[in-house]
Sequence to fold (431 residues):
Amino acid sequence: MSIIDWIETKKRGEALSDSALGAIVRGFIDGTIADYQMSALLMAIVLRGLDVNETITLTRAMVESGDVLDLSTLSGPIVDKHSTGGVGDKVTLALVPILAAAGVKVPKMSGHGLGATGGTLDKLESIPGFVTELSNERIVAQLQAIGACICAQSDRLAPADRAIYALRDVTGTVDSIGLIASSILSKKIACGAQNILIDVKIGSGAFMRSPDDAFDLSQMLIEVGAAFGKRIVCANSDMDQPLGRAVGNRIEIIEILQLLRCETVDKRLLSLTLALSDEALAVAGKSERAAEIVASGRAYAAFARIVHAQGGDLSRVEANVDQLPYISVNSPATGYVSHIDAATVADVARALGAGRMRKGATIDPAAGVWLTKTMDEPVRKGEEMARLLAADSIRVTPALQKALADAYTITHNRSEERDMIQTILSSKDFQ
Ligand code: URA
Fold:
């Protein structure tokens, strides 16, 4: 059988055999399967789905495309975290140093931007000098020395995910439960942690639009993880609105620095960061609370250590947001911000240059959207609601200004506050 047969098999909605999935991953990595054939297969998978067994097999083939880190020399609890991706989701950047400051080891492998959602690697690579591709030996040495690293897939760690992920990003083939679960878990398994917290986002700025879809993805992640002996905990959290004020790359780093320095930040961002960090600390068996770790300055120090260890120069990032060149979007009315459409904000940020439209395209690290007003905040007619930022001002068009203005809903009354985390699921929920 050939890739053409396998595309036909999935197009008819039939399951792919273990040997077919293995051959597909190997063929794509060694170049015998072309990008356009893989894209066709990925689209058939998005439309027809993968069952649990196919997802386990695909995950295994992606893990086996590289090495699995040996963390047996590390002492203390080891916990990993991942997000299914959101708009302005920068929680990992605070959670990893919070855990490291508490003595938890965090071997965190992240991805670049995917579809309309931002990628932790793009955010970190916007720090001048920051290196995300680390050798296996360097990852283990960094974990031993400072407790955490945030790195990319490499030629030796989940390389199949790197290649497939880059193609999915630009072919509209992200939102498949089987593809998302195998992509996330292949990275997590390659990185070797036993306990993994996954933030499964729900809403217009996420790949899972409804609570039912988020539940199904959580179940898939937990069941596939269990097949590899991993303990997975899924937190299902709100992504109907962007998270925090910054949507982009360097501006998201600036916002996370504000949070780690205990400056005033968006309350939804702070509450989700602390809640997920507390959950991860509990998974690691630690009783310390995230809020105390941040307040003591230890989380900021741990973040600075990670950046320094990976070659980044924080002093070249710490410009105040007000110093960045921008164009404002002003409010058409007086009232309260009752909704900001996350998908629209993501599209605007991508069009400004913060994300990719073609595989391998370079992004503008300074580009993005700054939401001067976020959920529930009062705003007066004519007052600034948001800013558009781009190194290349030609990208800032009146159409984007209008799209960003239209993303806001301003009402007379404040809307009801919603909990950021809607449910927490683990294997006991599926027994
Ligand atoms: N994060 C990943 O690493 N992969 C996906 O497919 C989605 C989110």
About this structure: The two ends are 38 Å apart (CA to CA). Residues 34 and 193 are 33 Å apart (CA to CA).
